[in-house]
Write a structure and sequence with these properties.
alpha/beta; Rossmann fold; Alpha-Beta Plaits; 2 domains; six-stranded mixed beta sheet; elongated; binds adenosine-5'-diphosphate; binds magnesium ion
């Protein structure tokens, strides 16, 4: 996000009731322009509901969605929410032709470009009903791309794919984001699926966004953290840094925190050569899933 806070979508205090049941409860978050924005939360958290609302498929009971672009222009919001509506008796190309017709677009060679873009350029007359799940998802993405959208909204596009299928979708989305500058909003109930892809995360729980965090900050959450206790922190810090460890120093507790992996013997030897006496070493390791469970509380399927 730029300094002045360029946003593409801003969700403000959105609530959604299904009869007496409140599915979304004053949900707020901001999607920066050009981001890959990951909505993470367990099943039933409200991801699909908010994506349907952003896509204009549903109306909020309360609250607003602001758009930083012309979202009323047909095709400008490309959405793949739940399973793509694909005609299984028709080829990938025919499916795109139908989508072009729906959007009132001229049928031309840009259709074949879109097929190639998602890696379905060589599927010929093969019926979409015979496609693998990964191919169907990529066809769904191609359909969402037909109107050259500013934003792609993809609800669990990785769900149920095999590792190769996951890599293909991940590469495709990275490419669409980088080369075409498309902002992508993507959901998953599995945090690690998005951890190599998203630039921003919103954690959704019980109809609310309970935390927004940048990918760089999330990186700092996981991994190995070591507390070094020493009488001479000013001498220890350069030694740790020379071993490639990122350090922070807390003057109050006088503990040096080091982030990253290292060989303890090498570090202790180097410290002793530098005349540093290390009194105590405490390590702790957190991973993304632990972080997620702590954040949402209780058991998680993420
Ligand atoms: N059409 C509907 N009618 C009633 N309840 C619904 C409807 N759609 C979703 N819900 C409920 O709203 C909550 C959020 O659902 P959903 O947005 O699908 O969550 P997620 O996509 O995160 O799994 C769930 O408790 C779900 O059962
Ligand atoms: Mg869902």
């Amino acid at each position: 996000m730029s300094e002045n806070g360029d946003f593409i979508i801003k969700v403000k205090d959105v609530s959604k009731d299904y009869g007496k049941f409140r599915a979304l409860e004053s949900m707020s978050f901001t999607v920066p322009k050009g981001s890959i924005y990951g909505l993470v939360g367990r099943n039933g958290a409200g991801k699909t509901t908010i994506m349907r609302i952003i896509s204009g498929l549903q109306k909020p009971t309360k609250g607003t969605v602001e758009y930083g672009f012309d979202h009323k222009k047909l095709g400008n919001v490309g959405a793949l929410v739940e399973l793509p509506s694909i005609y299984s008796n028709y080829s990938a190309r025919d499916n795109l032709v139908f989508q072009y017709m729906n959007l009132g677009l001229k049928i031309d060679s840009s259709i074949d470009e879109k097929l190639r873009l998602v890696g379905l350029g060589n599927t010929g007359s093969k019926r979409a009903g015979k496609f693998s799940l990964g191919m169907r998802q990529r066809l769904g993405i191609a359909m969402a791309m037909c109107g050259n959208p500013e934003v792609l909204i993809l609800d669990e596009p990785i769900n149920g794919l095999d590792p190769q299928g996951i890599i293909q979708i991940r590469d495709l989305l990275t490419q669409l984001n980088k080369d075409k500058g498309i902002t992508i909003i993507i959901s998953s109930h599995i945090l690690s699926e998005l951890s190599k892809l998203a630039t921003d995360f919103a954690f959704v729980e019980a109809g609310k966004v309970i935390k927004e965090i940048k990918a760089e900050e999330l990186e700092n959450v996981g991994g190995l953290v070591t507390e070094f206790y020493t009488g001479t922190p000013e001498k220890l810090i350069p030694v740790l840094n020379s071993k490639g460890l990122k350090t922070t120093f807390d003057p109050e507790s006088r503990v040096v925190l080091a982030k990253g992996y290292y060989n303890l013997t090498n570090v202790v030897t180097a410290a002793s050569e530098a005349g540093v006496n290390i009194a105590r070493v405490v390590t702790r390791e957190t991973d993304l899933e632990t972080y997620f469970v702590k954040l949402v509380g209780g058991e998680s399927n993420a």
